[in-house]
Write a structure and sequence with these properties.
The protein is of the alpha+beta class and about 100 residues long. It has one domain (about 30-104). Helices cover about 15% and strands about 35% of the residues. It has two helices and six strands; from the N terminus they run H-E-E-E-E-E-E-H. The strands form two sheets. It has a four-stranded antiparallel β-sheet, covered by helices on one side. A hairpin with a 4-residue loop joins strand 4 and strand 5 (about 80). It is extended and about 45 Å long. The termini are far apart. The mean pLDDT is about 75.
């Protein structure tokens, strides 16, 4: 990791980030983006994988194109009828079959 990229991970007494980063480095976790099929409008699917010694976690993210009338903006709140993105955490490698299951 580069030191300049660790700026958001400032420590405080209640922070677990220092312990987490040391453990990730000690256990030699690797991070990968096996699937990234997102177009310029933000529509598609992306998979980010965190691979440790014992298991792999995959974050599956879907982006959807919404029509302009999918949300109603009021004075103090936004009412959303549909969401433009969804994410799910999968234990293991997210393959084509699991992506089809999550997409439904």
């Amino acid at each position: 990791m580069r030191l300049r990229l660790l700026g958001p991970f400032h420590q405080c007494r209640l922070s677990f980030m220092r312990i987490l980063l040391r453990r990730l480095q000690r256990d030699r976790w690797t991070f990968d983006r096996p699937v990234f099929d997102i177009d310029e409008r933000g529509v598609g699917v992306a998979v980010y994988a965190a691979c440790g010694q014992e298991r792999t976690y995959s974050l599956v993210c879907f982006g959807h194109d919404l029509p302009p009338d999918a949300s109603l903006v009021g004075i103090a709140r936004i009412i959303v009828y549909q969401v433009s993105s969804r994410c799910g955490l999968d234990l293991g490698n997210a393959d084509g079959f699991s992506l089809r299951l999550v997409r439904c």
